[in-house]
């Protein structure tokens, strides 16, 4: 399942989610400092960097859970910097959370259905999407279980299923594969490719698993201390010595499960 | 399949209410108790109306009796016979003083006004959550009470409104309570109710899924206000008289206690709590007035005055200590499913 010769963003330049020169300060600390990142449809962009680099803050700013102190966010040419999260959700912008969120007392299936209802799907359509997504993520056997009873790995998958239930044009995933057993990574890669190639969504992927990131991403964006350190193809980024110093060294020291404050 | 199992959840509340109506009417019990049964059914209507907002949104409202009060005054004032109005409520606006409506029309009016009032009040209040929301709704109750207690152009002011037709018989009380339960059930199964319940569980995930929490809360608040107004109409047609303080702090405490005792998280909890606390409340009230023989024999006199609210409060505290999620533990009514439970146990032990 290889990409078509002409990526969609070259045919249709407006189809992107773009953060332009965004900064975000928390009581004097610059979590983001003039970061520009563009995500096109039908591509997977990796967002990597050491803990505290500002990855989650960037996702929060792009999805409306946080406001930038400077800079702007645009969705397909529309300025959305001041839009609420739910309005962005309805416009096709989805996210997953670094720490799993779920509608705890609802069943797994209801969790996915209600996310579809949230963006205006009818109940029958919501049920269809839930069936399809639970199947895609491989948690269809847990459909009737309460969300709170899920094991960590299944919780991460439900997080992704819920984000996909809004049929997003762009989906920002904050460490969706953290804690998945190594053996399940290929399944997750398949999910990401389905989302990109069949649903045509743009995916921003934060992950500490460098093998996964290098394998699945079309482009990679590296943050360090709130600034863009490098961006480009996986090969180009891999070759960047700064990245090796800032990221790979750090991640080797911390282990891959350590996580940045959100 | 989920739908059929879901509809079973409605059976428990409806059967419980129908049973209360039948037991109250068959002479099975002392006819003097009939009013207690009617009162319990009307309490169910009030508590379920409160539940529609509090249970589904997870936001506490201490002000819901405001909407009961609006419904009660609307239905009361508009059903006093026109001929008596100049004597009983001489200060009314002309258009209120010169017209009266029938029982059903007054109930509809109570529901509409309760809903509109909640909608207007809810537009600013629904932006709040947690303690701020609770206190703000309480402020609404204070404002409502003082307006009703002083403004003689819309009601009796500080006096008692009398000669209200006592049209809430057992049948009307039963049908009214079942109707409120049915609407509450339909709402919580609708996509609006489901979205609001999701936001109760996890606001951030709900917003990420496009759910406008303020809007969903506002709809629930308005619906809850309309049902409260209807319940207020039922209440006033039960008592036949009305003062502003009848629909103020005592009723607020009692109905919140009912909801909490039954379990805030489920419709079944609202119904069970309202019935259980009503039973206790009626018993203590009658014991206070010397109508319960064995209490008189035991104490040599009627129960001390004030025992009623003390008893209800103690009961609530005890339930909360042992069952923090209420008597129903926040679950909907379900038939025992032994076979299924065994299957689940096997699966989890495997």
SSE blueprint:
The complex is a heterodimer of chains A (262) and B (350).
Chain A: H1 8-11, E1 16-26, E2 29-40, E3 44-48, H2 55-63, E4 70-75, E5 78-79, H3 85-90, E6 93-95, H4 108-118, H5 123-137, H6 152-164, E7 170-174, H7 185-197, E8 202-206, H8 210-216, E9 219-224, E10 227-232, H9 234-238, H10 241-254
Parallel strand pairs in A: 3-8, 3-9, 6-7, 7-8
Antiparallel strand pairs in A: 1-2, 1-4, 4-5, 9-10
Helix pairs in contact in A: 4-5, 4-6, 5-6
Chain B: H1 2-25, H2 34-57, H3 65-77, H4 85-88, H5 94-97, H6 103-125, H7 130-150, H8 170-189, H9 191-201, H10 203-208, H11 213-239, H12 249-262, H13 267-288, H14 293-299, H15 307-322, H16 338-349
Helix pairs in contact in B: 1-2, 1-8, 1-13, 2-8, 2-11, 2-12, 2-13, 3-6, 3-7, 3-11, 6-11, 8-11, 9-11, 12-13, 12-15, 13-15
What report would you give on this structure?
The complex is a heterodimer of chains A (262) and B (350). Chain A is of the alpha/beta class and 262 residues long. Chain A folds into 2 domains: 8-92 and 168-254, P-loop containing nucleotide triphosphate hydrolases (Rossmann fold, 3-Layer(aba) Sandwich); 101-167. Helix content of chain A is 37%, strand content 23%. Chain A is built from 10 helices and 10 strands. The longest helix of chain A is centred in the middle third of the chain and has 15 residues, at 123-137. Chain B is mostly helical. Chain B has one domain. Chain B contains 16 helices and no strands. Chain B is globular and about 60 Å long. Chain B starts with a helix and ends with a helix. Residues 339-350 of chain B have low confidence and may be disordered. Chain A binds chain B through residues 63, 65, 84-87, 89-90, 94-95, 97, 101-106, 110-111, 113-120, 122-123, 126, 162-163, 165-166, and chain B through 191, 194-195, 197-198, 201-202, 204-213, 265, 330.
């Amino acid at each position: 399942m290889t990409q078509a010769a002409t990526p969609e963003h070259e045919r249709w330049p407006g189809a992107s989610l773009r953060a332009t020169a965004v900064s975000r300060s928390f009581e004097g600390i610059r979590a983001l400092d003039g970061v520009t990142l563009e995500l096109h449809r039908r591509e997977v962009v990796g967002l990597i960097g050491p803990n505290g680099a500002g990855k989650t803050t960037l996702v929060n700013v792009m999805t409306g859970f946080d406001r930038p102190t400077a800079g702007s966010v645009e969705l397909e040419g529309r300025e959305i910097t001041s839009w609420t999260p739910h309005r962005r959700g309805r416009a096709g912008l989805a996210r997953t959370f670094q720490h799993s969120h779920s509608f705890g007392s609802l069943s797994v299936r209801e969790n996915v259905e209600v996310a579809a209802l949230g963006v205006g799907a009818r109940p029958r359509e919501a049920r269809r999407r839930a069936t399809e997504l639970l199947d895609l993520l491989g948690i269809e056997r847990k459909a009737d279980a309460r969300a709170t009873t899920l094991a960590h790995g299944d919780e991460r998958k439900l997080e992704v299923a819920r984000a996909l239930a809004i049929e997003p044009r762009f989906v920002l995933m904050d460490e969706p594969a953290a804690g998945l057993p190594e053996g399940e990574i290929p399944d997750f890669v398949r999910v990401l490719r389905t989302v990109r190639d069949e649903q045509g969504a743009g995916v921003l992927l934060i992950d500490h698993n460098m093998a996964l990131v290098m394998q699945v991403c079309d482009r990679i964006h590296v943050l360090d201390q709130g600034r863009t350190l490098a961006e480009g193809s996986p090969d180009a980024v891999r070759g960047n010595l700064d990245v090796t110093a800032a990221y790979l060294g750090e991640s080797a020291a911390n282990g891959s499960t350590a996580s940045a404050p959100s | 399949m989920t739908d059929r199992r879901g509809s079973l959840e409605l059976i428990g509340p409806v059967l419980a209410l129908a049973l209360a109506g039948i037991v109250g009417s068959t002479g099975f019990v002392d006819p003097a108790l009939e009013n207690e049964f009617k009162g319990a059914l009307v309490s169910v209507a009030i508590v379920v109306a409160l539940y529609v907002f509090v249970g589904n949104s997870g936001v506490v409202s201490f002000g819901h009796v405001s909407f009961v009060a609006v419904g009660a005054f609307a239905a009361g004032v508009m059903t006093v016979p026109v001929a008596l109005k100049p004597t009983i409520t001489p200060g009314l606006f002309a258009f209120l003083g010169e017209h009266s409506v029938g029982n059903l029309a007054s109930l509809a009016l109570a529901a509409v006004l309760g809903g509109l009032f909640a909608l207007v009040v809810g537009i600013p209040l629904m932006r709040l959550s947690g303690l701020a929301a609770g206190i703000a709704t309480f402020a609404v109750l204070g404002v409502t009470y003082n307006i009703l207690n002083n403004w003689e152009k819309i009601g009796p002011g500080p006096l008692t409104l009398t000669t209200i037709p006592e049209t809430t018989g057992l049948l009307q009380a039963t049908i009214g309570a079942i109707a409120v339960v049915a609407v509450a059930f339909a709402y919580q199964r609708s996509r609006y109710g489901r979205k609001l319940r999701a936001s109760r569980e996890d606001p951030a995930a709900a917003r990420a899924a496009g759910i406008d929490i303020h809007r969903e809360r506002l709809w629930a608040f308005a619906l809850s206000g309309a049902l409260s107004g209807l319940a207020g109409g039922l209440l006033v047609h039960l008592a036949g008289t009305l003062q502003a303080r009848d629909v103020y702090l005592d009723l607020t405490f009692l109905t919140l206690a009912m909801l909490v005792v039954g379990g805030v998280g489920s419709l079944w909890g609202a119904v069970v709590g309202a019935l259980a606390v009503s039973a206790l409340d009626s018993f203590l009230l009658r014991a206070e007035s010397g109508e319960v023989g064995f209490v008189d024999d035991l104490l040599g006199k009627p129960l001390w005055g004030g025992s009623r609210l003390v008893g209800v409060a103690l009961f609530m505290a005890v339930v909360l200590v042992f069952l923090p999620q209420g008597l129903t533990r926040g679950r909907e009514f379900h038939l025992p499913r032994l076979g299924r439970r065994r299957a689940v146990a096997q699966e989890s032990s495997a």
